[in-house]
Amino acid sequence: MIFRREAPIHTRTTEIAPGIHRLSTHVADVAPPAGFTFNQFLIVADEPLLFHCGPRSLFPSVSSAVAALIPLDRLRWISFGHIEADECGAMNLWLEAAPRAQVVYSPLGCNISVSDLADRAPRSLGEDAVMDLGGKRVRLVPTPHVPHGWEAQMLYEETTSTLFCGDVFTQVGDGEAVTESDIIPAAMAAEDMFGATSLTPDTAPTLRRLAELAPSLLAVMHGSSFRGDGAEALRRLADEYEQRLNVAATR
Fold first, then answer.
1. Average pLDDT rounded to a whole number, residues 55-72
2. Which SUPFAM superfamilies match (predicted)?
3. Are 185 and 236 in contact, with CB atoms under 8 Å apart?
4. Is the pLDDT confidence value at 41 over 80?
5. Cα(190)–Cα(34) distance, rounded to whole angstroms?
6. Average pLDDT across the chain, whole number
7. Phi, psi at 177, each rounded to 5°
8. 227 Cβ partners below 8 Å, 6+ apart?
9. Domains, the chain, ranges and CATH?
């Protein structure tokens, strides 16, 4: 995505769970008139982890927001949901700013993209493997083509029951950092606008598998995060996509 240089950029920080900070930048030029939020998430632990790098154009603002929470050279791990500019465009800028940092990604993602794209060799972490960050524990969950990208993945932080779900539940606009209201209608409206989800026979089953984690917080990359029954929200989203797939199959 390309942002006009004259547009003011400001990244806001909200602690949405103990030690989990949402870094949100609203960009009015994207999806007008409501605009679009680009959210990164910092897990503060003995070995801090940043989920989503953001695009290169937002790096000055987002890195300043992170630096207000921890020294950048403390950052130890970087990860993201899939290969796309707003997910990993600034990856090498983060690796340069944080000399101890290393990208952590699934073996598939490392093999097909990350090992070549990253200026420093990534750490490969297998399916459902858990990393102890020191005070926080993250599990890697591969989600091929959900919402899109063969190498798609999510992270689940066990101590706060937070699922970092990337582009799933995308919403337009600049809503509150965390909501307990139903986010399904807004997510479906955004899907109607962008058509960004890979709709396959595996879409709904993957979402239902994620529901088995029983997250109480869904950390959403675009839009408000959701606090509540994350399993129910994931199952309802699965039902929506299953219905859409069935309709498409009859055309």
1. 97
2. Metallo-hydrolase/oxidoreductase
3. no
4. yes
5. 11
6. 95
7. -60, -45
8. 16, 178, 179, 180, 216, 217, 218
9. 11-249 (3.60.15.10)
- For the record, the structure tokens of 93 come out as 């800028």
pLDDT of residue 9: 84
Cα–Cα dist 47/201, whole Å? 38
Largest CA distance in the chain: 55
Confirm if 87 and 40 have CB atoms less than 8 A apart.
no
Under a CB-based contact definition with an 8 Å cutoff, are residues 23 and 32 in contact? no
Q: What crossing angle do the helices spanning 203-211 and 230-249 adopt, rounded to 10°? A: 170
Q: How far, in Å, CA of 54 to CA of 210, rounded?
A: 24
User: Strand 130-132 vs strand 11-17: parallel, antiparallel, or unpaired?
Assistant: unpaired
- What pLDDT sits at residue 4? 52
- Whether pLDDT at 69 is above 60: yes
Q: What is the structure's pLDDT at 7?
A: 59
